[in-house]
# Entry
Amino acid sequence: MKVYLDNCCYYRPFDDLSQTRVELEANAILSIIKMCDGKEYELIGSGVIEIEISKTADTIKRDNAYGLYELHSKYIGLNDTIYEKAKDLAGLEFGNYDALHIATAEFAEADVFITTDDELIKLAKANKNKIKIKVENPANWIMEG
# Structure
């Protein structure tokens, strides 16, 4: 099982866990990462993840996110195929980074793209005929698995 985590997933375990939803998502993400570290799943890293994490102003949050991200076992650099797919996705109202993440996950042949972004999930489901990857919330996905 190949898993691609959206950047928000690398931050979620370090967010304020006083909200039930945030705590559930954080625990789900940590479970997914644990399974990747145990080689049950393959965690995919990418150039776009690295760019986004590097732009995080909060150094503690950035360092924590890098700590989780470093557990990836496969790395996908940005290339023309990814840029072209991302351009097509941006035409469907996906934000630039979201489009790059989805295009990279597809290029890596990931089985799932996991995000805590409800709007991204909604947009992906509305365009499921144009996206070749399942886009899911971590808590929902871990409970379905």
Remarks:
- The beta strands are 2-5, 42-46, 74-76, 112-114, 134-136.
- The chain has one domain: 2-144.
